[in-house]
Please model this.
Amino acid sequence: MVYLDIGEVASRSGNTPSALRHYEKLGLISSVARHGLRRQFLPEVLLQLRLISMGQLAGFSLEELAGMFGQDRALDLPREKLHQKADELDRQIEQLTVLRNTLRHVADCPASSHMECPTFLRLLNVAGKMPKGNAVKRHHITRAAQRRSDTGR
Model:
């Protein structure tokens, strides 16, 4: 059987060894052997790590992701949660699209004052009606928390 050393898994997956140890502690992945003090993994761990990365990018916490892996590491994807997350992403995409359009218009607006520009005022009105908790800010806070969680801090 061919095993991958923790260093090779880290290198090939883009995760740090400490993140891999943290994922193992949470039950997201598991080593199958040791070579000296170094953990050894089956090659399938790389697919699991891609799934974890995609789940984090979608906004799932590591704890939520751990609940999606069974005892034998088989996936048990809760379809309703996936639909809810997809709906949440749709809302964030809508918010970010309005924000992007507003920024592009402001950058290129020929009006002498943005407050005299009807397009800017319309975009501002749409942005003002969006739910608070800015999607961009929330995304950065979530990613920062995940990075701290990944490193075990």
In short: The chain has two domains: 4-66, 79-150.
